[in-house]
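step: validate -> pass
step: tokenize input -> pass
step: predict -> running
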Amino acid sequence: MTKKFFFLLFISFQSFSQPKLLSWNLENLGKSKSNLEITYIANTIKDYDIIAIQEVVAGDGGAQTVAKLADELNRKGAKWDYVISDPTSSSAYKTERYAFIWKTSKVKKIGRAWLEKKYHLEIDREPFFCTFQYENKQFTVANFHAITKKMQPETEIKYFKFLPEEYPNLNLIFVGDFNCPQSHTVFNPLKKMGYKSIFINQKTSLKKECKNGNCLASEFDNMYYNASKITPINAGVIPFYKNFNFLLEARKISDHIPIWFEFSLN
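step: predict -> pass
step: emit ->
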């Protein structure tokens, strides 16, 4: 009886667990990542349902490395699928790819994923959109990597205020590395539309070296969701660098930590 009770409890928990979305700027994800590093990344993200990745190398094995990561995840007990963007249209800066990897038992991909083309001249690495269905409800993740802080990312983030109107039928969640804190006034138009950030004052990029136990540098990574369509359940970061003796070793994985968001769809 006891075994049966715990089995039923487990099944009940599984059916009520909500989608968990993770976003990670995996610095220069390509041939430079070793098999050991790919395995480490897979072990770090395997308990989440949708993975949004920024900074996939446009050439030099970026797409193949995403495929290797998905293959490694498939060895962990769940079935995963993935989609990779074309290289972004940037000519003035560094072209990259984006990727989504998702647990097929948890969510279903709807239609084709696409790079946002309307503002591709104004936004160096235009966001990569993908729509998912959880149970009978859909949401669309806009995966984004802004230009660096010194290049003034607010000059491209300002166009995000037009995207909800551009896609009025989509439940948009903006995720990624904005190279800009949520307190910046460039996010005010989205906030006035009812969008909220999952973090306030949460640093997510790694310093070159820890100082007095402080290893995080800037509030760059975040997610923005429409509070009328999404109810937050939980959010957090994965301070993976604590598993390494030296920050230099951790930075071989990435110079950013993963962020995650568990939510229910209204």
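step: describe -> The chain has seven helices and 14 strands.
step: cleanup -> pass
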